[in-house]
Amino acid sequence: MDKKRLDSISARVDASSPRDSVEDELELSSVRHRPEGLEQLESQTRFNRKELQILYRGFKNECPSGVVNEDTFKEIYAQFFPQGDASMYAHFLFNAFDTDHNGSVSFEDFVMGMSILLRGSVHEKLNWAFNLYDINKDGYITKEEMLDIMKAIYDMMGKWTYPILKDETPKQHVDIFFQKMDKNRDGVVTMDEFIDCCQNDENIMRSMQLFENVI
Questions:
Q1: What is 133-156 written as a DSSP string?
Q2: What is the pLDDT of residues 190-211, one digit of tens each?
Q3: How confident is the model at residue 62, as a pLDDT?
Q4: HSE of 23 in the Cβ direction (CA atoms, 13 Å)?
Q5: pLDDT, tens digit, 9 for 90 and up, residues 180-190
Q6: From residue 176, how far is each of 69, 146, 180, 190, 203 by CA, in Å?
Q7: Residue from 103, 200, 207, 211 nearest 156 by CA
Q8: Burial annotation 160-170 (CB, 10 A radius, 16+ → b, else e)
Q9: CA-to-CA distance for 189 and 204, rounded, in angstroms?
Q10: Claim: this prediction has a pTM higher than 0.85
Q11: Concatenated DSSP letters for 70-96?
Q12: Are 52 and 20 in contact (CB under 8 A)?
C-alpha cells in the first residue's frame, strides 16, 4: 500500500455514514483479538479517526479474527506482485511488522508500521528499514542479511523487470552499499552507520525509495 492508495482511501472515507462508525466500534468487540480503541490509536499514529476506520474495515475483511498469520500475509502480499515471487520478501516484511515476535500481526502492529512508512520522518523510516534488514534482530546488519533482503526484492519484482537485471546485480549493489555503510570495517553495520550513510548518500536514498514502493 503506497501513499497514493491511502490518499485515495482517505478521500472515499468522507462519504462514510455515521452508521459505519457505529458498526466499526461494535466490530471491535466481536473479533478474537480486540484492537485498542480508535482514540488511542489516533494518538499513537499519524492517521485520523476516519482513516483508521477505513484501514480497520479493510484489515477486518482480510482477517476476520483480528490478527493475520504469516501464510495469510504472504497470500495477500502476493496479489500485488503477480509477476514475481513475493514470498521471501513478505516473510521479512511480516517479521518487521510483528514487533512482539508472537507469530501474528494485529491491527495495532499494522497501523503502527504503516504510520511510520507513509507519514513518518526520514529518520523514523530509516529506523524501520534497519529493523527490516536486521533479520535476526541482534542490532546489526551483516552483508549476508542485506543480500537476503535485496535478493528477495529482486525476486518479487520479477524476471521481466525493465531493464532486465542480471543474477549478480543484487550482490553488486550490496557490495557497494555495504562498503559505504560499514565505516569502521568491522563487518557489520550499526543503526547509526546505516542512518548516517543513507541520509548523506543520494544514491542510497533513491534505492530506499524503491524499498518504500514495494511496501
A1: H-TT-SS-EEHHHHHHHHHHHHHH
A2: 999 999 999 888 877 776 665 5
A3: 87
A4: 9
A5: 999 999 999 99
A6: 35, 11, 6, 17, 11
A7: 211
A8: eeeeeeeeeeb
A9: 15
A10: no
A11: HHHHHHHHHTT-TTS--HHHHHHHHHH
A12: no
